[in-house]
Amino acid sequence: MTSASHLKAIHTLKSRSGLQEDEFRALLRKETGKASSKDLSDPVAGRFIEVLKGFAPVGKPAAAPRAGRATGKYAPVLQALWLSAWNLGLVRSNTDAALMGFVKRQTGLSHTRFLIEAAEAALVIEALKKWIARDGGVAWPADRDDTDPVARKMAVTRAIAARLAAAGGFTPFIPGGDPWPHDFMAYGRKRGLPQSFTTYGADDWDRLANALGARLRAVLANKAKEINP
Length: 229
Description:
Layout: H1 4-17, H2 21-32, H3 42-53, H4 75-87, H5 96-107, H6 118-136, H7 149-166, H8 182-189, H9 202-227
């Protein structure tokens, strides 16, 4: 039986968290195995209170998140990976709702804000990275460079460029030659990007990836229409 002080803390944090009733119940069952906060032992209630504290700053009510918007500690990295999959032509939608559908299939959790434990989040992140590497051809940087956003973004952009060239959506300057890197650097320069990849920052790689991704998706869509007119 939950003590009165713990029960009051749970109800207070619930109201500050922005969780809907069904979301709160799902979180409660996942974290405690119980359907009601009244049925928790004091040690379990204490641990659940610490979980709830992660959803909103103590003492400050949280605004309810916009429907379908990915939030939470691990949302930014998941969104970046999902956008990479979108630009590689691996997914049909780049929305947060589509991303959260993937998260739910992997974990059973209906929202990215329920990804609290690092180990559970790592499973989703690694699943996305492995899929993108396998089906998108991305050669992720070695472990020592894996935290470098520029190296990661360059790896994704190079894979997009390779898929685009293989699909016939980018003609090399030298027939039969490899358009990477020089032809794609020229492509970037025409769009106001730096002269050389060596001076690209993270935002530059994003701009090039988005431009090439849009072109790749258009090529893949046209090929799909040819197969299924």
